[in-house]
Amino acid sequence: MHDPERCRAEIHLLGPVPDIDSGDSIVVGPTPVTNLRISGTADVADQTGAVIRVYIDSVEQGSGR
Fold this sequence. Notes:
mainly beta
């Protein structure tokens, strides 16, 4: 991360998009290969495009399986 104070992620969802509003807490992961977990706050949720933009609070990597 070049600037943790300004990091954002854009999450593309497959399937139905949950009802998410700006300011809601979001946790994604762990991912299957790298075991990453991203925590943050929703900035914009586009239910029609299945995209959520998130301000990242933390990125953690687990120890594996």
